[in-house]
Write a structure and sequence with these properties.
- The longest helix is centred in the first third of the chain and has 28 residues.
- The chain has 134 residues and is α+β, with helices and mostly antiparallel strands.
- It is 21% helix and 34% strand.
- It is built from one helix and eleven strands, in the order αβββββββββββ.
- The chain folds into two domains: 31 residues; 92 residues, Rieske Iron-sulfur Protein (3-layer Sandwich).
- Strand 6 and strand 7 form a beta hairpin.
- The structure holds FE2/S2 (inorganic) cluster.
- FE2/S2 (inorganic) cluster (FES) binds next to loops.
């Protein structure tokens, strides 16, 4: 193998690796977040919730919130913009995305910021002292 063709091959390999390492995050950025929640039930004690409790439902981070005057709601904590995890701000009664400042109300609807749609609401019902989610 001649030196010139060897160097061309090395540069082609390095170029391919560089292009791949740039393309992967870009494609991941463009892909929609997977916030789908499959059917299934989960039970949690009502006394364990308090004002709000973060849970993992079907491998999806979620939160149960006891809304003053409106009762309990279970929402996905996965931001509908790019999939960051939302923080619950009890004082402001909002779910806030730390990535791009998307804000959701306690019904899961977008209040401001870039999120394109509402949060996934997880069905929930109270059975005695238990909350059944899903
Ligand atoms: S990921 Fe939540 S606003 Fe961008």
């Amino acid at each position: 193998m001649q030196r010139r063709s060897f160097l061309s091959m090395i540069f082609a390999i390095i170029g391919s690796i560089s292009l791949g390492s740039l393309a992967y995050p870009f494609l991941k950025y463009l892909a929609p977040p997977k916030a789908e929640i499959k059917a299934g039930k989960q039970t949690i004690r009502k006394s364990d919730v308090g004002d709000a409790k973060e849970i993992l439902y079907q491998n999806t981070p979620a939160i149960i919130i006891d809304r003053p005057g409106k009762g309990l709601i279970a929402l996905s904590r996965v931001c509908t913009h790019l999939g960051c995890l939302l923080d619950y701000d009890k004082q402001k009664k909002r779910l806030i995305c730390p990535c791009h400042a998307g804000i959701f109300n306690l019904e899961g609807r977008v209040v401001s910021g870039p999120p394109p749609k509402s949060l996934t609401v997880i069905p929930l019902k109270v059975e005695g002292e238990d909350i059944v989610i899903g």
